[in-house]
Amino acid sequence: MKKLVTATLAASAAALLAGTPVNAQRNFDDVQITTEEIAPGVAVLFGAGGNIGVSHGEDGTVLIDDQFAPLTAKIQAAIAELGAGPVDYLINTHWHFDHSGGNENFGKAGALIFAHHNVRSRMAAGGMAAGNATPPAPKVALPVVTYEQGLRFNLNGDRVNVVFTGGGHTDGDSVIHWEEANIVHMGDLYFKIPGYPFIDTNSGGNVINAMNSLDQVIRMIDDETQVIPGHGPMSNKAELVAYRAMIGEAVSLVRELRDQGMTMEEAIAAEPLAGFNRGEGFIGPDQFVTAIWTSLD
């Protein structure tokens, strides 16, 4: 059995660069923040860590996730180059440090931070995030406005819905949906990179919840929707549907082995995902089988 090595997982998760795992102790000086404008007043920033969404206009600037603290100045500069003002509102899709590491900096700069209740709770308590021991966040970094099901921003000519679909990657995942611009930011419910989905069971993640969340988003969008994944390049509904189908197939294969009376170790050794051709990535097949098994428990 190939066991999950926590140190390796932490190093990979700590510095995802454009969806590619790199050394956790890297020097962020060489990271470039690149910008892709996908609609009037809406852009995506790529750098190290989770993809950042930006909504900007006369009513203010909304930031979705903020990567790592050392990148805040570069992120602020990229936002300014869009013609946007300083960040007024910051939404965390979940609590992982590659999506919320800049919270303290943006909070000190005056941004009002929003997230699901569970995000604030986990950030305030600290603990294991993506296999990494994370200390409690300072007060200024914590979400000030929290919610159970979601909320709506009516600004910059759009209705921007922040929706808690039930989680899956963690127990606090939010999806952000621009109704008029027809864009959805998935957070880490959707990885468009090699390897398998990351279900952080230590943070309340569960693969069944993830499938239900993906189903809800798929019903919410159409064939023209632009989909921002948590990591990787821009996507669309067809690719999101295929991603959801892949997860469902994997769960069925693992469930079948479980129903046959196998132990988790025997199921991993059976290599049920051998034919998936997902490539080598942050999460390998053994780790995904483990996450599925744990979720079924």
Notes on the protein architecture:
It contains nine helices and 17 strands. The protein is of the alpha+beta class and 297 residues long. The chain is globular, with a radius of gyration of 18 Å. 49% of the residues are buried.
Cα-atom radius of gyration: 18 Å
Strand proportion: 15-25%
Order of helices and strands: HEEEEEEHEHHEHEEEEEEEHEEHHH
The helix/strand class is alpha+beta
- Arithmetic mean pLDDT: 92
Helix content: 25-40%
Shape: globular
Straight-line distance between termini? 19 Å
Widest sheet, order of strands: 3-4-5-6-7-8-11
Residue runs with pLDDT of under 50 for 5 or more positions: 1-25
Provide a count of the helices: 9
Let me know the number of strands: 17
User: Strand count, sense and closure of the main sheet?
Assistant: 7 strands, mixed
Summarize it.
This protein has helices spanning 6-14, 72-81, 97-100, 103-108, 117-125, 207-220, 237-259, 264-269, 285-296, and strands at 16-17, 20-21, 34-39, 42-46, 52-57, 60-64, 89-91, 112-116, 127-129, 132-134, 145-147, 150-155, 158-164, 174-178, 183-185, 226-228, 235-236. With 297 residues, it is α+β, with helices and mostly antiparallel strands.
